């Protein structure tokens, strides 16, 4: 087996707050190979965005990486100096964010913001950098890129801005791209375009893609594998088709059940009862137990460990769902794609 | 001109952000209670709220220092006739023989001039204590009057809306677009010197702040249910405005007014320094500083410096208290 | 835009008109200039003659009409003291005040922005908290007292800088300026610094709030994710965003700086139009006071108008930064 370009192990991120130390990410491990796409799924507050930021070394006080390891191309990032991290960010690991309206600096022209990204890592002339920026814009489908370089962000639509952000992030051909819900704020039609563009670009350059989202339907058509997070932990992981078709963890099943789809018209949408727990007040057992229809006594007292299952899958559950062997062959993954 | 001053006006309204009750309200309360060992909020809301404010006020050292200095200054000013070494304005007491004594010399009937004497042989310590009286009186009374006028107009504007509101706020904007110092200077040039005239000038330049502050909070309060309820009960308008609306706009007013006392004192001292403020017979701290200004260059520093120090102590003390009050009364602003 | 411009200019003219009435009425009540100008032993006839010469014997409304008519022609009366056109007397002193205000403005940015940025980057650090609490002092301490203390320190004790006057000037495009001579600069430094201290507190507050806000923006996070150095992020991304509110507010404050120069000029015996105002008030030189006030109102209205226009012109981006503020 080759070394993965991104290898996260037992990552633990804590925030010191007024109510004490809160563990936002607890023991998260995953690996992504070159050209592979991993979906990181969870509700807001599940720790998925914090995990993404941790990969870039962008956890600010009062937060910190308390334990674990993050290796990019076999280089350890945890514990590196800020200076060393600067050299990695934007070069080996890049990130794009949720709201394209705010990721670009409103008072700087597009060329400034793109060229600085190149020149932060390479000694190239302003002119050469500008050419690269222009080519990158053309590649993400921005018409007349030469002119657009001179524009300010507010002269672009939301979808166009996200394209600019993607082009900027990919300028230095990073080994890993972390995408933190980059399509959530966009129109559905543009979402789909951007999704396929990012996928194509990453495949072309062999960039490993970590796609953070709360939307399972996005993952279904995009990712190779998926990790589902709940309350700072990965509760289930595995190849995307398997996980969506036969979820092991009741939480994953709940998530799948709450996605609207064509085949369930007229049927009330399933909901997961209750609310996401406050991280500072996690129950001693399984954090999902209070909301879980399958919870038993051990769930409330003993924290479930990560248990591997065949087919490269794993889950943290005392009562894994028993998948009936004769489920109708409705391909859950395909059903979920919009 | 309305759009020129959006910052201060918009802040209080923008405060209560969406979704704050759950995340911001609860932990803050809980933390506040556990920090000080205060029992959880009692059902008697009014009293426990006050007690919580008071105890949270005393959490800050700088606020305590400010309060102590402020109380000491007020006490010194009030009690000046009893413990000042001399009555500095009873000319019979003054002896020209004692003029320009540096600090620590003996003057008059063998008393020590701890802070020196001025060109007329006046004990500076006594002069400062009496000057403090004038400064504090002018500051406090002008703020009180201006706050009453401004708050009434502000709450009226917010409640009445329409033309009344736009007229009042136009005048407020116009007033605030000219610097206080200039307006006060012209008014005093017109009126002439006098403690009462300084107070009037300070009221004129200040009322607009209160009108704007109170209108801001009244606009928020106006939409709350209890006003709706009062209207449904068909209570008279005046009662709704003054008994229901106004009291709920008081906390921000207190914060503005506290800090404004310091500003009023500073402005009064500036005007007196420029020679258009209080009369020579009732010198405030600013006037004492002006009197000593001419001697500063010749090395007799004490005549100007000590009244200045007293002035600064009072102003800083008020600001420390005001700053803490803002944090306590408006937890949303406390970061 | 054109409609807005016309409406705004109309409003400005209205403000000037209202202020003209107020100023005239107010100043009309300032003492009796005849008594000051005349010889103490003058007879009633002589007094009447002076009053007639100055036009003070006519009814109030007539005096006002004459005042407005003359003002429209740029004549704001003749100074009782200088026997010269009041406007000329003031305009002679305008460059000194403008120079003072301008240098103070620049100083307040040079002092305020770096301190504000430092305080904004580490709001809970020792430096940040010290800067912020010191800035409260800058706000609340009386400016004239700060001036006095600076004189005491730099002019009396250390004898580094002169305590009063304006020093040598050189004509630049026909305007006498002192900031280009060493002597003039040494005279300018203390008063400008005193005047700047007050505004730099304001700049510190705006810069600190702006920095804190900008640092939390997604585009700063994105800039960090691009691997930019903190230096570049602060110098380019943060500073450029923050300068919009700083410049806007300071533009508005230029007027109040001219007004505040009254105090500073008096403390430092600086021969600008602020000191002239105080002297004229004490000498009951009505036309000078009126001319000063009208000129100041005019400057204020112009500044407000220009800032409003700029607001409207750069609307989309300003609205954007407003919405975030």
From TrEMBL, chain A:
Cross-referenced CDD domains: ABC_NikE_OppD_transporters (cd03257)
Entry keywords, A to Z: ATP-binding, Cell membrane, Membrane, Nucleotide-binding, Transport
InterPro entries hit by this protein: AAA+_ATPase, ABC_Ni/Peptide_Import, ABC_transporter-like_ATP-bd, ABC_transporter-like_CS, Oligopep_ABC_C, P-loop_NTPase
Coiled coil spans: none
Bilayer topology: Peripheral membrane protein
Subcellular location: Cell inner membrane
Highest taxon in the source lineage: Bacteria
SMART domains: AAA
Pfam family, one: oligo_HPY
Residue ranges of every copy of the ABC transporter domain listed in the record: 8-256
Transcription regulation is among the record's keywords: no
One Gene Ontology cellular component: plasma membrane
A GO term for molecular function: ATP hydrolysis activity
Family of the protein in this entry: Belongs to the ABC transporter superfamily.
Protein name as catalogued: ABC transporter ATP-binding protein
Gene source species: Salinarimonas ramus
Taxonomic path: Bacteria, Pseudomonadati, Pseudomonadota, Alphaproteobacteria, Hyphomicrobiales
TrEMBL record, chain B:
Residue span of region Disordered: 1-46
Subcellular location as annotated: Cell membrane
Superkingdom per UniProt: Bacteria
Transmembrane segments: 61-84, 134-159, 171-192, 198-214, 245-266, 301-322
An individual GO BP term: transmembrane transport
InterPro entries reported in the protein's UniProt record: BP-dependent_transpt_permease, MetI-like, MetI-like_sf, OppC_N
Domain ABC transmembrane type-1 residue range list: 132-322
A Pfam entry, by short name: BPD_transp_1
Compositional bias per record (Low complexity), positions renumbered to this chain: 1-21
Family annotation (Gene3D superfamilies): MetI-like
Topology relative to the membrane: Multi-pass membrane protein
Matches recorded under PANTHER family: ABC TRANSPORTER PERMEASE PROTEIN, OLIGOPEPTIDE TRANSPORT SYSTEM PERMEASE PROTEIN APPC
Family according to the record: Belongs to the binding-protein-dependent transport system permease family.
Name of this protein: Peptide ABC transporter permease
Species lineage: Bacteria, Pseudomonadati, Pseudomonadota, Alphaproteobacteria, Hyphomicrobiales
UniProtKB/TrEMBL annotation, chain C:
Record-annotated ABC transmembrane type-1 domain positions: 94-311
UniProt-listed InterPro entries: BPD_transp_1_N (IPR045621), MetI-like (IPR000515), MetI-like_sf (IPR035906)
Protein name (database record): ABC transporter permease
Location, primary (coarse class): membrane
Biological processes per GO annotation: transmembrane transport
Pfam family, one: BPD_transp_1
GO terms under cellular component: plasma membrane
SUPFAM superfamilies per UniProt: MetI-like
Leader sequence segment: none
Alphabetical UniProt keywords: Cell membrane, Membrane, Transmembrane, Transmembrane helix, Transport
Localization annotation: Cell membrane
Keyword Translocase: no
Membrane protein topology class: Multi-pass membrane protein
Family indicated by similarity: Belongs to the binding-protein-dependent transport system permease family.
Domain of life of the native organism: Bacteria
Transmembrane segments: 12-31, 100-121, 133-156, 176-198, 242-268, 288-314
């Amino acid at each position: 087996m080759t070394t993965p370009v991104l290898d996260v192990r037992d990552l633990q991120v804590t925030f010191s707050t007024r109510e004490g130390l809160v563990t936002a990410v607890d023991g998260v491990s995953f690996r992504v190979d070159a050209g592979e796409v991993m979906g990181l799924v969870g509700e807001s507050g599940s720790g998925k965005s914090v995990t993404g930021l941790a990969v870039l070394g962008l956890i600010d006080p009062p937060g910190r990486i308390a334990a674990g390891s993050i290796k990019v191309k076999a280089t350890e990032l945890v514990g590196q100096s800020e200076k060393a991290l600067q050299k990695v960010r934007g070069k080996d690991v890049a990130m794009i964010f949720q709201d394209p309206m705010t990721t670009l600096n409103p008072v700087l022209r597009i060329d400034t913001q793109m060229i600085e990204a190149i020149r932060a890592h390479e000694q190239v002339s302003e002119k050469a950098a500008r050419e690269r920026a222009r080519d990158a814009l053309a590649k993400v489908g921005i018409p007349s890129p030469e002119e657009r370089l001179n524009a300010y962000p507010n002269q672009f639509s939301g979808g166009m801005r996200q394209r600019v952000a993607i082009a900027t992030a990919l300028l230095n051909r990073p080994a890993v791209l972390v995408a933190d819900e980059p399509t959530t704020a966009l129109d559905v039609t543009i979402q789909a375009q951007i999704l396929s563009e990012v996928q194509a670009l990453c495949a072309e350059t062999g960039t490993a893609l970590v796609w953070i989202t709360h939307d399972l339907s996005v993952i279904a058509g995009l990712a190779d594998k998926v990790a589902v997070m709940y309350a700072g932990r990965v509760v289930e992981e595995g190849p995307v088709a398997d996980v969506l078709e036969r979820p092991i963890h009741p939480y994953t099943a709940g998530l799948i059940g709450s996605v609207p789809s064509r085949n369930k018209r007229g049927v009330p949408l399933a909901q997961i009862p209750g609310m996401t727990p406050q991280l500072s007040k996690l129950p001693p057992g399984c954090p999902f137990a209070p909301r879980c229809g399958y919870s038993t006594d051990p769930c409330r007292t003993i924290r479930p460990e990560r248990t591997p299952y065949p087919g490269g899958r794993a889950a943290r559950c005392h009562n894994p769902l028993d998948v009936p062997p004769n489920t109708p062959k409705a391909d859950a993954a395909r059903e979920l794609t919009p | 001109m309305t759009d020129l001053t959006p910052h201060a006006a918009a802040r209080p309204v923008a405060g209560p952000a969406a979704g704050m009750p759950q995340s911001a309200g609860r932990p803050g309360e809980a933390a506040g209670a556990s920090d000080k060992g205060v029992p959880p909020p009692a059902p008697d809301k009014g009293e426990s709220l006050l007690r919580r404010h008071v105890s949270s006020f005393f959490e800050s050292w700088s606020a305590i220092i400010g309060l102590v200095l402020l109380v000491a200054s007020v006490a010194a000013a009030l009690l000046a006739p009893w413990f000042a070494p001399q009555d500095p304005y009873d000319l019979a007491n003054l002896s020209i023989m004692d003029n320009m004594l540096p600090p620590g010399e003996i003057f008059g009937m063998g008393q020590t001039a701890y802070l020196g004497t001025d060109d007329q042989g006046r004990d500076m310590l006594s002069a400062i204590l009496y000057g403090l009286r004038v400064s504090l009186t002018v500051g406090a009374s002008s703020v009180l009057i201006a706050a009453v006028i401004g708050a009434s107009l502000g709450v009226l504007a917010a409640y009445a809306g329409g033309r009344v509101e736009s007229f009042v706020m136009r005048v407020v904007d116009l007033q605030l677009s000219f610097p206080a110092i200039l307006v006060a200077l012209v008014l005093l040039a017109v009126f002439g010197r006098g403690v009462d005239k300084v107070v009037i000038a300070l009221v004129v330049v200040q009322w607009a702040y209160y009108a704007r502050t109170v209108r801001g909070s009244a606009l928020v309060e106006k939409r709350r249910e209890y006003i709706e309820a009062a209207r449904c009960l068909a209570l008279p308008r005046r009662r709704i405005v003054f008994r229901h609306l106004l009291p709920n706009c008081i906390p921000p007013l207190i914060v503005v007014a506290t800090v404004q006392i310091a500003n009023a004192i500073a402005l009064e001292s500036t005007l007196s320094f420029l020679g258009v403020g209080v009369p020579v017979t009732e010198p405030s701290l600013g006037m004492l500083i002006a009197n000593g200004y001419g001697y500063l260059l010749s090395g007799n520093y004490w005549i100007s410096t000590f009244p200045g120090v007293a002035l600064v102590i009072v102003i800083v003390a008020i600001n420390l208290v005001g700053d803490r009050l803002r944090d306590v009364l408006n937890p949303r602003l406390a970061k | 835009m054109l409609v807005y411009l016309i409406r705004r200019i109309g409003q400005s003219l209205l403000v000037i008109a209202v202020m003209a009435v107020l100023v005239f009425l107010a100043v009309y009540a300032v003492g009796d200039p005849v008594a000051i100008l005349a010889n103490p032993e003058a007879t009633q006839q002589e007094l009447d003659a002076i009053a007639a010469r100055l036009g003070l014997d006519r009814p109030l409304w007539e005096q006002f009409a004459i005042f407005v008519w003359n003002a429209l022609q740029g004549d704001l009366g003749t100074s009782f003291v200088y026997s010269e056109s009041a406007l000329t007397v003031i305009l002679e002193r305008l460059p000194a005040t403008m120079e003072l205000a301008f240098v103070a403005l620049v100083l307040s940015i040079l002092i305020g922005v770096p301190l504000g940025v430092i305080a904004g980057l580490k709001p809970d650090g020792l430096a940040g908290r010290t800067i912020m609490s010191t800035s409260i002092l800058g706000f609340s301490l009386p400016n004239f007292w700060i001036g006095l203390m600076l004189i005491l320190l730099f002019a009396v004790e250390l004898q580094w800088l002169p305590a009063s006057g304006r020093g040598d000037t050189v004509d630049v495009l026909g305007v006498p300026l002192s900031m280009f001579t060493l002597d003039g600069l040494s005279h300018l430094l203390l008063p400008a610094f005193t005047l700047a201290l007050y505004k730099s507190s304001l700049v510190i507050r705006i810069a600190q709030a702006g920095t804190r806000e900008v640092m939390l923006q997604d585009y700063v996070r994105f800039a960090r994710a691009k691997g930019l150095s903190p230096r570049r992020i602060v110098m380019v991304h943060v500073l450029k965003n923050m300068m919009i509110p700083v410049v806007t507010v300071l533009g508005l404050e230029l007027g109040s700086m001219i007004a505040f120069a009254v105090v500073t000029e008096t403390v430092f015996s600086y021969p600008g139009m602020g000191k002239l105002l105080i002297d004229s008030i004490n000498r009951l030189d009505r036309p000078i006071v009126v001319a000063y006030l009208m000129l100041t109102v005019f400057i204020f209205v112009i500044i407000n108008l220009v800032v409003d226009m700029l607001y409207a012109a750069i609307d989309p981006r300003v609205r954007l930064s407003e919405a975030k503020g």
